[in-house]
């Protein structure tokens, strides 16, 4: 699993919430923005991405759109985790290829509700 | 300020301030694991940490979240655990994220203006003695929330 957020604090919190939600993850990789995430995906096997939207360098929406054009990336499910909860952002993220959307602040139960169906589809 | 503008400002303070307080309460309860509640207004010591997030679009302005250094470290510790929140960078990062989530949660609760509004990446300043002033010319909503007996200052300065 790859967690993409410019805040190292938020990456830790997402990781903790995944654990508290009871979702088993073998390896957790981290990236600070969309460009870094694409580099990680080019080097490491990734089966799920949890991604913020509002990031410097390359934001989450651009990342999802770019990933969808990549042979190795288009099969990797992406769930957005963000404060940007407006309908237009949700529509844009989902139409760009994201499989789910979690709004901050979030509880482990909300993470479970949105991530588990995606994880289930992978396995 | 004209009568109309005063009425709009009063209306916003009456309707938006409780939303700002609720947005702050929810962020602390869910992400920090601690309940906060509005307290009597008190003067900021002018030292510690201030996190800022800009809002642009239908709602334009700046949301700030400030507290003293000791409280900032306590907030980060509650959010991350004592072993993780040991560096000043982590404390700044935690406060920036809290400010970001308060701004997002607040705008998501507004019926119209918040829906077509974007947030900036958070900025955090820290120091022993500083003051800051937003060059926004609209009204200001501000509240003081109590966190484990210490004040947290939350304000929204709007552009007209």
Describe this structure in words.
Helices cover 46% and strands 15% of the residues of chain A. Chain A is α/β, with parallel strands linked by helices and 123 residues long. A 5-stranded parallel sheet of chain A has the order 2-1-3-4-5, sandwiched between helices. The longest helix of chain A is centred in the last third of the chain and has 15 residues, at 108-122. Chain A is globular and about 30 Å long. Chain A starts with a strand and ends with a helix. By secondary structure, chain B is of the alpha+beta class. Chain B has a single domain (3-40, 52-158), classed as Chemotaxis protein chec, CATH 3.40.1550.10. In chain B, strand 2 (48-57) and strand 3 form a beta hairpin. The longest helix of chain B is centred in the N-terminal third of the chain and has 30 residues, at 3-32. Chain B is globular. At the A-B interface, helix 1 of A face helix 1, helix 2, helix 3 and strand 4 of B.
């Amino acid at each position: 699993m790859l967690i993409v957020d410019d805040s190292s604090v938020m990456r830790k919190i997402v990781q903790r919430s995944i654990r508290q939600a009871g979702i088993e993850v073998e390896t957790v990789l981290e990236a600070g923005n969309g460009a870094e995430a694409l580099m990680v995906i080019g080097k490491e096997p990734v089966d799920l991405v949890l991604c913020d939207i509002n990031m410097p360098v390359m934001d989450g929406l651009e990342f999802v759109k770019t990933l969808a054009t990549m042979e190795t990336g288009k099969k990797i499910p992406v769930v957005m985790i963000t404060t940007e909860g407006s309908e237009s952002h949700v529509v844009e993220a989902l139409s760009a290829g994201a499989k789910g959307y979690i709004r901050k602040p979030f509880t482990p139960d909300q993470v479970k509700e949105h991530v588990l169906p995606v994880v289930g589809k992978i396995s | 300020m004209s009568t109309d503008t005063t009425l709009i400002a009063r209306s916003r303070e009456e309707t938006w301030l409780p939303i700002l307080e609720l947005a702050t309460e929810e962020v602390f309860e869910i992400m920090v694991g601690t309940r906060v509640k509005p307290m009597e207004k008190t003067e900021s010591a002018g030292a510690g940490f201030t996190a800022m997030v800009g809002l642009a679009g239908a709602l334009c302005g700046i949301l700030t979240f400030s507290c003293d250094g000791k409280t900032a470290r306590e907030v980060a510790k509650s959010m991350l655990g004592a072993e993780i929140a040991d560096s000043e960078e982590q404390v700044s990062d935690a406060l920036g994220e809290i400010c970001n989530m308060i701004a997002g949660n607040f705008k998501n609760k507004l019926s119209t203006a918040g829906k077509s509004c974007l947030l900036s990446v958070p900025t955090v300043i820290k120091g022993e003695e500083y003051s800051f002033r937003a060059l926004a010319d609209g009204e200001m909503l501000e509240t003081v929330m109590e966190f484990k007996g210490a004040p947290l200052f939350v304000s929204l300065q709007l552009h007209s």
